[in-house]
Amino acid sequence: MTATHHIRYSATTHVGLKRQVNEDAILALPELGIWLVSDGMGGHEAGDYASRLIADAVATLPEGMSPIQTRQAVDDALQTSHGLIRAEAGRRDKGTIGATVVSFMVAEGHFLCFWAGDSRLYRFRHGESIEMLTTDHSVVAAFVESGQMSWDEAELHPQSNAITRAVGVGETLELDMIRGEILPGDRFLICSDGLTKYATFDILQRAMNHTPIEIVADKLLQIALDGGGGDNISVIVVDVI
Ligand SMILES: [Mn+2]
Question: Separation of 204 CA from ligand 1 center, angstroms?
């Protein structure tokens, strides 16, 4: 373990109120400084297969790696997962199987995040507004990027669920990456769209402000359930102490 900051976290995943199967998968490896959310697509026994495969691939990484080795190992695990899911989709011949991923890593005063799809990483820094650090790979993200609408407005768009990138989809997997410094008091949120379709920036900001780490993930989950719980919901909150 090479992290120089203390970390606390809470995490939860829930099938929601409308779906039969939870196609999301979450992973917390505090000893390795890795947290992950994956949102599978393709329906029963496809989406859950894909997201579980991704979480399992990262879960089996060894402890004791350097930050650079960890970063490389997570990248490798996601690329391997991409190939395995593609091969499985070919065998099943039932259309697209894939999953989003946000893999959040902390080491030596920094965070690093790889992602693909519309699962998100936010940062809540004391005294500042909540900040979305990832950019969705989705149809509506292009509208937001070009200034036609806000992220909150994009949730209401008919194409809000259409993603343009996922592990297991397409010839090659391109992961976006963001890294930065971590400061004591920083609170990170990693979540699937089952939360964010019911939680605007304002709602997230209010729910995360001054809420103890032990209950914050459940509090966010409850917001999505109260909103209708139309999708699977996954929430991980990581506090830097
Ligand atoms: Mn979802």
Answer: 17
